[in-house]
Amino acid sequence: MELKPIHERCSGCRACELACSLANFREMNPAKSALGIEGRFPAPGDYRIHLCDQCGACAEACPEDAISLESEAYLIDPDLCTGCLNCVDACPHGVMFVHPGSETPIKCTLCWACAEICPRDAIVMEGGA
Amino acid sequence: MLFGYAGNILEVDLNTGQVNKTPLPEDLARDYIGGRGFVAKLLWDKIGRGTDPFDPENLLIIATGPLSGHLVPASGKTHFGTKSPATGGYADASMGGHFGPALKYAGYDILILKGRAPEPSFLVIEDENVELRSAEACWGQGAITVEEDLKKELGESFQIITIGPAGENLVRFACISHDFGRQAGRTGVGAVMGSKNLKAVAVRGTGGLPVFDVDGLFEKSKEAYKKVRAKPGFAGWTPEGTAGITNWVNEVGAFPTRNFQTSFFPGYKDINGQAVLERIKITDKGCFCCPTPCGKYGKTATQLGTAHVEGPEYESIALLGGACVLGTIEEVAYANYLCDELGLDTISAGAVAAWAMECFEKGILTEQQIGRKIGFGDLESLAYLLEKTAAREGIGDLLAEGVMRASARVGKGSEAFAIHVKGLEWSGYESRNAPGMMLAYMTADVGAHHNRAWALGHDVAGSAASVHDLISAGGRGGRLAKASVSGKAGRVIELQHIRPLFDCLGICRLQYMELGFEGENYEALFYLVTGRKMNWDELLKVSERIWHLTRAFSVREVAGFGRSADYPPPRFFTEPVPDGPNQGHYLTREELDILLDEYYKARGWDENGIPTSETLKRVGLGHVALELAGAK
């Protein structure tokens, strides 16, 4: 299973970002979400959804082996993470996020909260379970 | 702990750049909730009596509500308040988008701007860091251009408000712009920002908001989004957004056409919601956490050029399209773009241009005075007037004053068709056969604006669960019928409490008003966010208190304010509608007096429309009663 963006449906409301921070941190804080919505205005005048596709580039870049595949998602072990941010640089989609309140980068856990809340069905789960 | 709120007020003295951060007072949150309530209370307390709107001592207050920035349907609303350069009285303007939530994540519920920067400046707020920077390089540029440039300079994640040349040049109906198409449009808030030498404010925050019951709220929010999606209006109303009402307003004969000469526009199907969808739209564009995005972002091409633009939404269609008689949605969208870039409120700008066109048609303003021939239905005429107005060049210097002041200066009977109340131009509903809506316009605290009490549905159908239900029922069967002007005050007052309540909570009213998403949902969400148990009626009591306070503010600040400020222009009580569904209808002056008498009585105001001391005390405004009594 993976999350798929359908950019054309996105209306930029960012409810997904809040759902992500609530599901993963129990916080109302979009700066602590593991996805990003980009508005491209005035031209071309649309939105782009930036999502983790669990490609594993972060795990490959991690010198501490702090990121590993569990079930279908790459997860960070905060006890092993040293905050070097190599994974942030290595992420091809720009969806490893840094927050000033956390040494560990913020990464998608494939919890599905974003897809569940999206009122536009612009983020969907795809692939067999 | 004030759950829901960021917990702080940020005050910036633009004279010196000095920044003052203070805790949000608990009694302010308790008694006024947020947004519009904060604006009303702070304006009353902090603005010195008789302050000129363009004096540096006037304040520009930007206030969020307790639900702003939370995972609650459509929690992106921000309120802007000031002493209005259009009316001289109480002013607030509501804006969607993402700015308010960002302000809260940075740690502030309210931003108070006072003084005047010594040079053109913009303000950057990033959590604790607040910095005033030079805006010399972008002074004079368009509002959209500056937002695009600042996003490139500061980063895409900053949320930005800007003014265009109209704000810099103190056009009395200049707006504040945000997110490439959202505006705090009305009452001239952009001109006050310009008078402070402030071109833009950019904000980014990384903090979270305190929530009373975070798990309970998350579950309830998921349920709320599902409930909104299940409403028939979700699929029926959302695709066209507010533009979708254009057909219905024409069918019931309330569309402001040819400077409100008439109320039906034969070519409305070329400028309706369907036309936006088929000929303009690229994407739906929603405000923060909005499940029903009414914004339609697109691209238009006309003989004057091409442009990306958000909209046109209904009000812009009504005033730029109907009032100025533009024949195609492409032309309306282009005029909309010009207003957005120049920083003009599309409603007032359309009404002002339409007034000028009628003055020219009647020979009251000449080609020599205007600088060229102008006419209804001509995009080039409209573009000329908009550009001159924003620059205050030539005829634009007169038009920049708005129709009340311009018609007083020009005279020759032009006051009769200067369509405003209190100095604020009329928005998109012609009301000569809609006494409830007429009363709503007459008594709206900011002037002739529809958003305090959209009573037109009540005039047409008696009642309807939602605007979507009303439109679905069709307009032709429900033609306006002026059965009686009596008995309208109750519904208007009820609406004047309901709709502004959303402006206090910091969320959009459209899910409630247009889709019928019920009030009890908001009671529950309010409790889970703030921990305060208040039922719908208790929340409306706060809204009532604020209504009396905003009236008191205008009584205090506007010389001779009272009943005389509550009448529409003579066109509406002397000229029958010439054609269309409401041909022959108008309200007489005597009928307007019945509307006002019943309204004042129901409000607890005296026959001159001044809140009585007893009424003010009853709603917890004893201090206001004392101050008003002392001023007499």
Structural commentary:
The complex is a heterodimer of chains A (129) and B (632). Chain A has a single domain, classed as Alpha-Beta Plaits (2-Layer Sandwich), CATH 3.30.70.20. Chain A is 20% helix and 26% strand. Chain A contains four helices and eight strands. Chain A has helices spanning 15-25, 57-61, 86-90, 113-117; strands spanning 2-5, 36-40, 46-50, 67-70, 73-76, 97-99, 102-106, 123-126. Chain A has a two-stranded antiparallel ribbon. In chain A, strand 4 and strand 5 (73-76) form a beta hairpin. The longest helix of chain A is centred in the first third of the chain and has 11 residues, at 15-25. The mean pLDDT of chain A is 96. With 632 residues, chain B is α+β, with helices and mostly antiparallel strands. Chain B folds into three domains: 8-204, 4-Layer Sandwich (Aldehyde Ferredoxin Oxidoreductase,  A, domain 1), CATH 3.60.9.10; 243-418, Orthogonal Bundle (Aldehyde Ferredoxin Oxidoreductase Protein, subunit A, domain 2), CATH 1.10.569; 419-516 and 534-632, Aldehyde Ferredoxin Oxidoreductase Protein, subunit A, domain 3 (Orthogonal Bundle), CATH 1.10.599.10. Chain B has 28 helices and 17 strands. In chain B, the strands form four sheets. In chain B, strands 2-1-6-3-4-5 form a six-stranded mixed β-sheet. Helix content of chain B is 42%, strand content 13%. Chain B is globular. Chains A and B meet through helix 1 of A and helix 7, strand 13 and strand 14 of B.
